[in-house]
Amino acid sequence: MKKITLTIGTLLLLATSTVAQDKVTGYVFEDQNANGRMDRSEKGISGIAVSNGVDVVQTDSRGCYELPIGDDTTIFVIKPAGYKVPTDHQFIPQYFYHHKPMGKSDAFKYPGVPKTGQLPKEVNFGLTKYDEPVDYSVILFGDPQPYTDTEVNYFGRSIVDRVVKKEDTLFGISLGDIVGDS
């Protein structure tokens, strides 16, 4: 009898861990100290849209969300007005989490997303308050495809540097890749 109970318990545990990987939960919160973690004093933000690329849900009154997730899913917060998302050391917005437990396929020429391992208990997104201007400029870079280091430097000096100096430019988007394939 003990053997049957142990086997059923093990199967239930395995089934529970498998089910847990079918959904992602987390919070969107006001990151008052901009440390990237939801501290006890920081509150969730309600009504923020979060997506898995297929479904879009809004956070509840506590800032909590839940979405289905697969083995190749990106979870992301849709930035609301009046808040900004954190950026990394290259000023790339950090508003997403890639869930790819097996990593990239070896069939591709370029490296892809590394293995993420098991889904964390929570995937949280910190936002900071931001006094967003009503009028601003957006810069779109249309697939420049420089082929040499000289062309990359020229693009940086003659275009990107000018954009950085414009005071009313809120953000820029680069369409396509920034380098040509040879």
Structure description:
This protein is of the alpha+beta class and 182 residues long. It folds into two domains: 22-129, Immunoglobulin-like (Sandwich), CATH 2.60.40; 137-175, no CATH class. Helix content is 20%, strand content 26%. It has helices spanning 2-20, 149-165; strands spanning 23-30, 49-51, 56-58, 64-68, 73-77, 83-84, 96-99, 125-129, 137-142, 169-175. The strands form three sheets. A four-stranded mixed beta sheet has the order 4-1-8-6, with no helix packed on it. A hairpin with a 4-residue loop joins strand 2 (49-51) and strand 3 (56-58). It is globular.
**Average of pLDDT:** 83
Q: What does the main sheet amount to? A: 4 strands, mixed
Distance between the termini: 67 Å
Strand/helix succession = HEEEEEEEEEHE
CATH fold node name of the largest domain? Immunoglobulin-like
Quaternary structure classification: single chain
Number of DSSP helices?
Answer: 2
**Outline type:** globular
Let me know the number of strands: 10
Strand content: 25-35%
Helix content: 10-25%
Name given to the CATH homologous superfamily of the largest domain: Immunoglobulins
Sequence stretches where pLDDT stays below 50 over 5 or more residues: 15-20
Structural class: alpha+beta
Count of domain modules: 2
The strand order across the widest sheet is 4-1-8-6
Radius of gyration: 21 Å
What is the C-level CATH assignment of the largest domain? Mainly Beta
Name given to the CATH architecture of the largest domain: Sandwich
